[in-house]
Amino acid sequence: MRIIVCILMLYVFPLPGSASNPGVSANNAREIYEQIGNESMSFEAFDLAFRGWTELKDSISLDDNIISVVDFSKPSTEKRFYLIDLETKQVTYQDYVAHGKNTGSLMAEKFSNKPNSNQSSLGFYKTAETYYGKHGLSLRLDGLEKGINDKARQRAIVIHSAWYSEESFIKKHGRLGRSFGCPALPAEDYEEIIELIKGGTLLFIYFPESGYLENSSIIN
Fold first, then answer.
1. Could you tell me if 51 and 33 are in contact, meaning their C-beta atoms sit under 8 angstroms apart?
2. Domain region containing 110
3. What's the mean pLDDT in 74-84?
């Protein structure tokens, strides 16, 4: 009898941290994607990001509403950073984002977790604290995947603004400039973006690399 009562109480009074955004679950990614209605964002990138968020949101206390996606399958001339609000089903911000200088030129091609590689790293990150550095307001990232991006903090991989991430750079050079591995944003909206995503939201950097997709313990 006591066991039955305890089970019923768990249904009525869920444990702290067990609540989540109503209507959001792993099996309705397609429905949410269609409600968002942003066709420039690939479903595969969103689906994997959403799958990771569903897997991680309770275990590492992620924000219930926000996911950021960087889609490195697109050229740097496209706005491939997406800040997604799962509550309102909207892309709140979509902007340019640079990749690492040894990751590729127009297209991202190679990725690394190694210090001094000057390459971008794929996978899932949790946003952390902000600080002011040589690029102004910057946001530290903690990589969540061992051997894939877990050296992000050691490598000083952060979100910051950069002059080479501006549309004017594309008009002059035919592509964005490149970073030392950081996902660098244009200056206009980056402070607002950082304020929205800092302190415990999920960032997913996507590229259809078979090695990553097969080896990610979060995706699989």
1. no
2. 27-215
3. 99
